[in-house]
Design goal:
Length: 334
């Protein structure tokens, strides 16, 4: 099969990804083999390519927002039928036995595996997935629309719930890329008032089109105190900015897997009056199922930019420079 892999992590402009031939994978016990129909481009892929997250194996194939057709079944695999369309997300496997898995917090599993990091992902023509960690895709979404739901959407959903946003509350969103533009739609559907702070003028325009009440620069002061906020931008310098925009008792949820250094916080200005700062780590399968059900009801309308599958390196380069709004998706047929 053809695939992209991380040859040597480095600045994306230096070409850390390489396109070439790899052996076709075979599904193991309880696994399914997918013919990849679409793969979303996530900032985590950029972190992997550039070495902010070190690949956990040489020549790792990125990609964890995968829509595929089931073309093979491993031994004991019966959850899906040949020809079904399914999705693979960030979470590839958990142990099911550690204290976190046992209490329903499998996102904190002590020995997890992640698609495109621990195991090869969807920047390839073929991919294997454990049947218990795959999702049925609602028919309302095309392959291109569905791809960003599988990480950007799921993580945005968990971040929204982690923020503790009250009904009808005021939500601040810092950074407005693939995940944020889906989260804003969820929050607005649930009657929240949304304020967006982001450096990209195109992203500000998209936020307003989607129904945000305010969109301004990343360090702008929103026009009202926030009940909750979510930081999607991987910029630690925005943590105190967002905390100071919170009303008493508000929560800032940090949604990224990687964040630049956070400045020293001032207790009185940033945290006093029961402001909360918390991280969001991966997701549970329950998050994924709940989110896809909500996405279908709304229904969410992802803003996508299609790239030819052979242009994965260009898609990541464009992501690094905010060259597009919404989510990039790699499509074999483009």
């Amino acid at each position: 099969m053809r695939a992209w892999w991380v040859e040597e992590p480095g600045p994306i402009a230096s070409g850390p990804l390489q396109l070439g031939e790899r052996p076709d994978p075979s599904p193991g016990a309880s696994e399914i083999l997918l013919s990849v129909l679409a793969c979303g481009v996530c900032r985590t892929d950029l972190h992997l390519a550039e070495g902010d997250l070190r690949p956990r194996a040489v020549r790792r194939i990125p990609g964890h927002e995968v829509v595929g057709e089931v073309i093979g079944l491993g031994a004991g695999s019966s959850r899906f039928r040949l020809g079904e369309r399914v999705g693979a997300a960030w979470l590839a496997r958990t142990c099911g036995a550690c204290r976190f898995c046992q209490r329903g917090s499998e996102n904190l599993c002590l020995t997890p595996a992640f698609n495109g990091w621990d195991v090869d992902g969807g920047y390839a023509e073929l991919m294997t997935v454990h049947q218990d960690f795959a999702y049925r895709i609602p028919d309302v979404f095309t392959d291109e629309q569905a791809a960003p739901l599988l990480c950007a959407g799921i993580i945005g959903y968990r971040a929204l719930r982690s923020s503790g946003l009250p009904p009808g509350g005021k939500l601040g969103i810092y950074g407005f890329g693939a995940s944020a533009h889906l989260t804003a739609q969820m929050a607005i559907y649930e009657d929240a008032r949304v304020y967006v702070m982001t450096r990209s003028s195109a992203a500000q325009s998209l936020a307003l089109r989607l129904g945000a009440e305010f969109a301004g620069p990343a360090e702008a002061e929103p026009p009202a105190l926030l009940d909750a906020a979510i930081l999607f931008a991987p910029a630690g310098g925005l943590v105190p900015v967002a905390l100071r925009a919170l009303d008493r008792g508000g929560t800032l949820a940090v949604a990224g897997i990687h964040l630049s250094e956070i400045p020293v916080l001032d207790y009185q200005k940033d945290l006093f009056q029961e402001r909360h700062l918390r991280s969001v780590t991966a997701n549970t399968r329950a998050d994924g199922r709940e989110f896809l059900s909500l996405a279908e009801r709304i229904p969410l309308r992802p803003t996508t930019v299609a790239y030819a599958w052979t242009s994965a390196d260009q898609a990541l380069l464009d992501l690094s420079t905010d060259a597009y709004s919404g989510a990039a998706v790699l499509l074999p047929q483009v």
